[in-house]
């Protein structure tokens, strides 16, 4: 009996001491999908904020991104948004799956984290805590937004304003915007240091802080623009054409 | 230098050996002296006010790594912390979290470091053909020796372990000290272990792929070791190991 348990134990230790290539893969996938999503967010917020330059500017951005150059009518094709949204959804799912490794899923881990935050003053650890909180929030908010873009991919100065004002999406966006911006910018900052892409941490931190304020600002302003446009629209709306 | 002001120390007191003792914060007051460090203050407190106060020290010069503790929320060495750094004159001292508590401010970092060294095999593994005591050792390039020496400056004080939220959440995580030592042998041309061998030791959630780059190690290390660069180097090395 003793012999048996001993040999089992040594077998177990031997097995556990071997590394799995998936440890490296999971880490690389998390970083790669994170960079993809972070860069996409930077572009996305600028595209949708083109409404601040007027309805016409936004119309042309959508027209260009939806392949209006290749249609006979000259309008964009919402199917492009639909397909791209499905792709983004898949990237989000993969990112969430590997990022789950980081969650303090057990109560003991959560309490250890809180105790550490109370006892030790350290800004980057606190920043990660907010990334954790916003990441958790995004589990629920991001899919709602992406699903809407898959089922109703129509975008335009009036179509988007209808969604924001008449379909009450403003509430979702008001919550989603700060969560996703904070999560993504702290994430991009960390991923650059994590793989040693830069050693200029101070500069990077400053850039991340500025980007958080800047992106939330343009996001809020464009959200307000859509609310103002939406309030002036009567249902059923007619899509904007310059 | 604000000479002669009264310093107030709030010190964590708890003796696990004493039945019925409960953790508590105890307040002490002491007149500040020129050039006083927290380490000097603690010795004065023990000598003049409370001989039962437990804390560790050996070298009083930032070399032995024994007197690490959490001072006003920052894990660091007491012997290298001047009391004049605190304009309010209030100093709160806590033992390093994440280690077995011996009593008051004294923690068993030695036990942790020994277990870590055994688990990660933190010693030189010479090449088989070099185990010949009659042969003259091959000289090491000065650049390589300097690189190794830089990483060998670690005093095993335990600050990086206490400053790491990842380590606090995941007890089996090797922490910056473990990775620093692995990197030291990885860089050593005399060590026979391959990248794959190191991968089997730290290529997992308890090693480089468990590190979340919170950088508590980098920001608190009293020896200013390049943890951020070193862990990133190891991560890149390990990420390319088993592909």
UniProtKB/TrEMBL annotation, chain B:
Residue span(s) of domain 4Fe-4S ferredoxin-type: 144-174
Q: How is the cofactor bound?
A: Binds 1 [3Fe-4S] cluster. Binds 1 [2Fe-2S] cluster.
Keywords (alphabetical) are: 2Fe-2S, 3Fe-4S, 4Fe-4S, Iron, Iron-sulfur, Metal-binding, Oxidoreductase, Ubiquinone
Q: Which Gene3D superfamilies match?
A: 3.10.20.30, Alpha-helical ferredoxin
**Could you tell me which residue ranges the 2Fe-2S ferredoxin-type domain spans?**
21-97
Q: Which cofactor does it need?
A: [3Fe-4S] cluster; [2Fe-2S] cluster; [4Fe-4S] cluster
* EC id: 1.3.5.1
Going by the entry's taxonomy, the superkingdom of the source organism is recorded as Bacteria
Q: Which reaction does it catalyse?
A: a menaquinone + succinate = a menaquinol + fumarate
Question: Per the similarity annotation, which family is this?
Answer: Belongs to the succinate dehydrogenase/fumarate reductase iron-sulfur protein family.
What is this protein's name? Fumarate reductase iron-sulfur subunit
Which species is listed as the source? Shewanella algidipiscicola
Q: What is the lineage of its organism?
A: Bacteria, Pseudomonadati, Pseudomonadota, Gammaproteobacteria, Alteromonadales
């Amino acid at each position: 009996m003793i012999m048996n348990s001993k040999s089992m134990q040594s077998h177990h230790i031997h097995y556990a001491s071997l590394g799995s290539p998936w440890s490296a893969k999971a880490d690389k996938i998390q970083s790669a999908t994170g960079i993809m999503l972070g860069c996409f967010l930077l572009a996305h917020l600028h595209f949708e904020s083109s409404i601040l330059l007027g309805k016409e500017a936004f119309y042309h951005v959508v027209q260009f991104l939806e392949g209006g150059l290749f249609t006979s009518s000259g309008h964009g094709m919402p199917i492009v948004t639909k397909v791209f949204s499905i792709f983004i959804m898949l990237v989000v799912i993969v990112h969430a799956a590997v990022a789950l490794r980081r969650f303090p899923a057990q109560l003991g881990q959560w309490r250890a984290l809180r105790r550490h935050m109370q006892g030790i003053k350290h800004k980057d650890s606190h920043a990660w805590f907010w990334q954790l909180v916003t990441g958790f929030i995004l589990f629920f908010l991001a899919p709602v937004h992406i699903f809407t873009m898959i089922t109703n991919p129509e975008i335009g100065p009036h179509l988007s304003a209808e969604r924001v004002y008449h379909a009450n999406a403003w509430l979702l966006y008001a919550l989603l915007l700060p969560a996703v911006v904070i999560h993504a910018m702290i994430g991009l900052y960390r991923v650059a240091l994590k793989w040693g892409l830069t050693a200029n941490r101070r500069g990077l931190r400053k850039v991340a802080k500025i980007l958080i304020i800047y992106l939330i600002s343009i996001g809020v302003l464009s959200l307000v623009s859509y609310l103002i446009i939406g309030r002036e629209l009567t249902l059923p709306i007619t899509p904007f054409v310059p | 230098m604000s000479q002669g002001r009264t310093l107030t120390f709030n010190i964590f007191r708890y003796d696990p050996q004493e039945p019925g003792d409960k953790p508590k914060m105890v307040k002490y007051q002491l007149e500040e002296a020129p050039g006083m460090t927290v380490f000097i203050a603690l010795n004065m407190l023990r000598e003049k006010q409370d001989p039962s106060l437990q804390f560790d020290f050996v070298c009083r010069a930032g070399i032995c790594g024994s007197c690490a503790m959490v001072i006003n929320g920052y894990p660091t060495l007491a012997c290298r912390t001047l009391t004049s750094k605190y304009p309010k004159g209030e100093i709160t001292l806590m033992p390093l979290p994440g280690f077995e508590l011996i009593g008051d401010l004294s923690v068993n970092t030695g036990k942790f470091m020994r277990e870590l060294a055994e688990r990660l095999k933190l010693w030189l593994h010479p090449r088989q053909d070099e185990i010949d005591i009659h042969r003259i050792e091959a000289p090491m390039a000065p650049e390589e020796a300097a690189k190794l020496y830089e990483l060998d400056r670690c005093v095993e004080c335990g600050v990086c372990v206490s400053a790491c939220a990842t380590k606090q959440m995941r007890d089996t995580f090797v922490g910056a000290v473990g990775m620093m030592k692995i990197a030291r042998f990885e860089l050593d041309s005399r060590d026979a272990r391959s990248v794959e061998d190191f991968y089997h030791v730290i290529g997992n959630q308890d090693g480089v792929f468990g590190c979340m780059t919170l950088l508590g190690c980098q920001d608190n290390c009293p020896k200013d070791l390049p943890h951020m660069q070193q862990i990133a180097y190891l991560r890149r090395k390990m990420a390319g190991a088993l592909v």
